[in-house]
Design brief:
The complex is a heterodimer of chains A (about 350) and B (about 625). Chain A is of the alpha+beta class. Chain A contains ten helices and 18 strands. Chain A folds into two domains: about 230 residues, Rossmann fold; about 90 residues, Nucleic acid-binding proteins (OB fold (Dihydrolipoamide Acetyltransferase, E2P)), CATH 2.40.50.140. In chain A, a hairpin with a 4-residue loop joins β15 and β16. The two termini of chain A are about 25 Å apart. Chain B has about 625 residues and is an all-alpha fold. Chain B is built from 26 helices and two strands. In chain B, α11 runs antiparallel to α14 and α18 packs across α20. The termini of chain B are far apart. The chains are: A alpha+beta (about 350), B mainly alpha (about 625).
Chain lengths: ~350, ~625
């Protein structure tokens, strides 16, 4: 469906994208994830045509659109700020692209009302100014405006970043449902790993203009290819050399020459170790109560590590209490040491 | 090759070339060259023997009385800074900081200068305090020894300008004081500071940057004062420049060069002050670091004596501000004789000063009574006044619109070329007139274009006959460019850059995007700038006075003419009545414009739709009520 072949983008002397290669399948919800300035929005803007690469090609449905003007690419965009025209009503916002296509008034009206119905906007809301709508309704208008012209792809640039936490979760679900209903290929840009994991079919993790890993949410979370990906996605403990030594002394067989990481939920407190698992002695220094789960900071002597335990209401440990941390060496992700700031290409 | 040519002949490329040519023409032709001509004309002097003597005017300045005008202007500017700040800070503190009873009414009174200023305000004060003014007449009747000419010269100018120049304090200092985090005041009180200590140590220091800006602006206003010194008789720089501009070498020594020298001196002062101001502004203002800013609450003056004194002071100021306004409004509805006698006649109210035209009888020198038609006439029925209004209306509207169009096009370009040199050059070119006093620009126009030798205006004398109107429009436009640029540029910052991307993505061309997406967003600001420009130009005096000619008699000049003593013959009959009515008319126009700008213009589409919705519901409710009543009556 969409192929980015060896894309390189430069801003003056600065190379923003280094040889980007992505293949997005038809109907897929594909996310570009990464920290600020990593190149995810630049890649999106290269696909939409706002940025022209210095080399490489953008191919959509086997058609090279690298040098096709923005308006002729047939790609809908939902912007971070929604970019709704404040001086127009909701109706006029949605109809804007159709008017430019010089469609007949009846046809425009039908298309606007159809799409509004699909995104759950009432006739009354169509006549309102965009400033009179809530954040969620504005998002629907932005999606309707992007979809009404019948694009082949829809690109979303951090559309939830301006919303409060509760609304973000609510709209995330709506967004996923809408994407499934329309069945449209979607490229989504975010720096929020939770958003990426919950929404995407596949994720490309960006770092400093490179893609470090492309995979399903499970792949990037549980089988992070690079140290950067494993650090960026979710919370994680990097085991110190001392702890690795402790674990190996208990029979873990971890490679001390590598950087060893283990996710918080893979560690357990005061449970009977199964074969192959090792127990490390520690003391609870801080307990954070989240309701659904409890996060413990446990001092292992040489390092304080974080552990998440499901809140079963029974096994709750006090600060200062001596505990055993159970580690399964199979859960440890190990990486060759890299220099500070180095990118795994 | 043909592809390159085709690309070059693209409408957008042609438009850009035309734009660059236009702005270059505007900058060089109507900003730089006329002013350079003024600068060089200082050294274009000849001595008594007819020989070229480049430094003659400098020597004249050093030796003669010219320094008096500079000194007088400086004296006015320095004292004005003190008096305006004292009154300006007082009125803001009295209405915003201290708990003074009737603060809302007081604020309205103090804000009257926003709807009548310049020549209208000066004539308003003269109506009260001049030798034949109401108050002076009353005082003279009460105390025959009272000097009727007490309101003239420096004191009168200082008094009038003090109250005329506090509008900026009411706008900017008020906003600054409202932006103070009340928690800081509470914190100071909590630590034992009394209200005056809090004012001195906490509140005033945060206002210093605003006060500094206001001080510099007041100083420049004092230095460039025109209408008050002219009408009240004070020898400062600007009136002297205008006088010299109208003089000839037959009357006095190199008047043009002297005028040029004075205007360059004025320009140097302005440039130095604005540079100081910019440098200071670059240091930045105090910003509240509070995340949860509390609204300022009025401070009670606990000391009863101080409280009474503050109230007395507040209401005395209120009376000074309001008396001319009230008197002018009342007298604008009085008869000719009541105005002439400066005595209220509560039994006779009339609209003659606005719309009337009445025969006036007078005794001729031959001893016969003769009826003269239309001798007493109102603002809208007096040919000269109406002519002035019409001319000012057209020229001001044209210039205000032209300044807005030029600036909108330029700012749109600047935003497109944000980090490019051409955008920066354009911006500085449009800010150029800000560095120069208005009088320098106008004087330069008057002298430079008063010739058939300027090739780029088609060798046409632009100061000749009706051409002067074009010159006035150009001067109005050029002087309004910096203000328009600052305001409109600020409004461009409110446009989300993604809107342009969104429009492009939906297939919109750059021109369509500009017209349908960007322009509607900035339109309220553009209209506001247009209205404020128009408001300032409609009764503008300084430029009109410089361009004074039969074909360029603006409304302000007509009002000035009305200040001349009432004559039995000619159009000046009922001048005082028309003057009052004119001031009322100006107040109405200014008030309406301010309402349109800050009331209607500030509403966004959502507000407008809500208002429309409420109106529709009200009409429906009324209709339902009416039809219900009708049905009940039919049933009965």
């Amino acid at each position: 469906m969409i192929k980015l072949n060896n894309i390189v983008v430069k801003f003056g002397d600065f190379t923003a994208l280094h040889d980007i290669n992505v293949h997005v399948k038809e109907g897929e919800f594909f996310t570009f994830l990464g920290p600020s300035g990593c190149g995810k929005t630049t890649t999106l803007r290269t696909i939409t045509g706002f940025i022209e690469p210095v080399s490489g090609s953008v191919v959509v449905k086997d058609r090279d659109i690298t040098h096709v003007p923005i308006e002729k690419r047939n790609i809908g965009i939902v912007f971070q700020s929604y970019a709704l025209f404040p001086t127009m009503t909701v109706y006029d916002n949605i109809a804007f692209g159709l008017k430019i296509q010089k469609l007949k008034k009846d046809e425009i009206d039908k298309k606007v009302r159809d799409i509004a119905k699909k995104v759950d906007l009432s006739d009354e809301q169509l006549q309102k100014a965009v400033s009179q709508l809530s954040g969620g309704q504005q998002q629907r208008v932005a999606i309707a405006r992007a979809l009404v012209t019948g694009p082949a792809i829809i690109c979303m640039d951090e559309p939830l970043s301006n919303l409060d936490a509760k609304l973000r979760v609510q709209l995330r679900n709506e967004l996923k449902k809408m994407q499934k209903d329309f069945g449209i290929t979607t490229i989504y840009v975010t720096h929020d790993q939770e958003e990426a994991l919950t929404l995407s079919d596949r994720i490309a993790v960006f770092n400093k203009g490179y893609i470090e890993q492309i995979g399903t949410p499970n792949e990037v979370y549980n089988f992070s290819k690079t140290e950067f990906v494993c650090n960026f996605i979710g919370d994680i403990n990097r085991l110190s050399d001392e702890v690795v030594k402790q674990a190996n002394a208990a029979g873990a067989k971890l490679d001390p020459a590598k950087h060893n990481y283990v996710r918080l939920e893979r560690l357990h407190v005061n449970v009977e170790p199964r074969p192959g698992q090792v127990a490390l002695d520690g003391v609870v220094t801080v307990r954070e109560y989240y309701g659904l789960y409890i996060k413990y900071y446990i001092d292992l002597g040489s390092q304080t590590i974080k552990v998440i335990e499901k809140n079963d209401g029974v096994r709750i440990y006090e600060e200062g209490q001596a505990v055993q941390v159970i580690l399964d060496p199979a859960d440890v992700m190990a990486y060759e040491p890299t220099q500070e700031g180095e990118v795994a290409k | 090759m043909s592809q390159t040519l085709g690309k070059k002949l693209h409408p957008e490329w042609l438009l850009r070339v035309f734009g660059i040519a236009f702005f270059a023409y505007l900058f060089f032709g109507f900003m730089l060259l006329p002013c350079l001509n003024t600068l060089t004309s200082i050294f274009n002097t000849t001595n008594a023997a007819g020989e070229r003597d480049p430094f003659a005017v400098i020597r004249f300045f050093m030796a003669g009385t010219m320094g008096k005008y500079v000194w007088n202007s400086l004296k006015l500017a320095v004292l004005l800074v003190i008096t305006v700040n004292v009154v300006g800070i007082s009125i803001v503190l009295l209405t915003e900081y201290f708990d003074i009873k009737g603060a809302k009414i007081l604020r309205l009174g103090y804000m009257t200068t926003m709807i009548y200023s310049g020549v209208a305000l000066v004539t308003g004060y003269m109506f009260l305090y001049a030798s034949d003014g109401i108050l002076t007449t009353a005082l003279k009747n009460a105390f025959p020894a009272f000097n009727p000419n007490w309101f003239s010269g420096f004191n009168a100018v200082l008094f009038t300008m003090t109250f005329a120049c506090t509008s900026n304090h009411m706008l900017f200092l008020r906003n600054a004081i409202r932006g103070i985090d009340y928690n800081t005041v509470e914190a100071a009180r909590n630590m034992g500071a009394n209200p005056f200590k809090v004012l001195w140590k906490v509140v005033l220091p945060t206002l210093i940057p605003t006060l500094f800006s206001l001080t510099v602006m007041t100083f420049i206003t004092g230095l460039c004062a025109m209408s008050a010194p002219t009408l009240l008789g004070y020898d400062s720089i600007n009136p002297e420049i205008v006088r010299l501009a109208g003089s000839s070498t037959a009357d006095e020594a190199f008047p043009q060069a002297r005028a040029a020298l004075l205007s360059i001196i004025l320009a140097m002062f302005t440039i130095v002050l604005l540079t100081v101001l910019s440098a200071y502004e670059r240091k930045g203002h105090y910003l509240s670091v509070s995340k949860t800013k509390a609204r300022l609450q009025k401070q009670k003056i606990n000391n009863p004596v101080a409280n009474v004194l503050a109230h007395i002071y507040a209401y005395v100021l209120f009376i000074i501000y309001m008396t001319p306004v009230v008197m002018i409004i009342i007298f604008s509805f009085q008869t000719y004789s009541a105005i002439r006698m400066k005595k209220l006649d509560l039994s006779h109210w009339t609209l003659i000063n606005f719309f009337g035209q009445e025969d006036y009888q007078y005794l001729t020198s031959r001893g016969k009574y003769k009826t003269r038609v239309g001798s007493v006439s109102g603002v809208f029925s007096n040919e000269a006044t109406l002519g002035g209004i019409k001319l000012s209306f057209i020229l001001s509207a044209l210039a205000a619109a032209l300044a807005c169009v030029i600036v909108v096009v330029a700012v749109n370009y600047m935003f497109k070329k944000k980090n490019k040199g051409s955008g920066v050059v354009l911006e500085y070119a449009l800010l150029f007139p800000w560095l120069l006093p208005t009088i320098l620009i106008c004087y330069s126009y008057r002298t430079y274009f008063n010739s058939n030798a300027v090739w780029y205006v088609g060798n046409t004398n632009l100061y000749y006959a009706q051409n002067v109107r074009f010159l006035i429009v150009m001067a109005y436009t050029v002087t309004k460019l910096p203000f328009s640029l600052r305001m409109i540029k600020a409004s461009f910052y409110t446009i989300d850059e993604e809107l342009e991307d969104a429009a492009r993505n939906l297939g919109s061309s750059p021109i369509r995007t500009f017209l349908r997406v960007k322009l509607p967003i900035i339109l309220p600001s553009v209209l506001a700038v247009f209205a404020l420009n128009f408001n300032a130009l409609f009764t503008e005096y300084d430029m009109s006075a410089t361009f004074a000619s039969t074909y360029g008699t603006s409304y302000a000049m007509v009002i000035q003419a009305m200040c001349a003593e009432e004559g039995l013959y000619g159009y000046n009959i009922n001048a005082s009545g028309r003057r009052c009515a004119s001031t009322v008319f100006i107040m109405l126009v200014s008030g309406l414009i301010l309402y349109l700008v800050y009331g209607v213009g500030a509403r966004d589409l959502g507000d407008r739709l809500e208002i429309r919705d409420r109106r529709r519901k009200r009409v429906e409710a009324l209709r339902a009520k009416f039809s219900k009543g009708k049905a009940e009556r039919a049933d009965a």
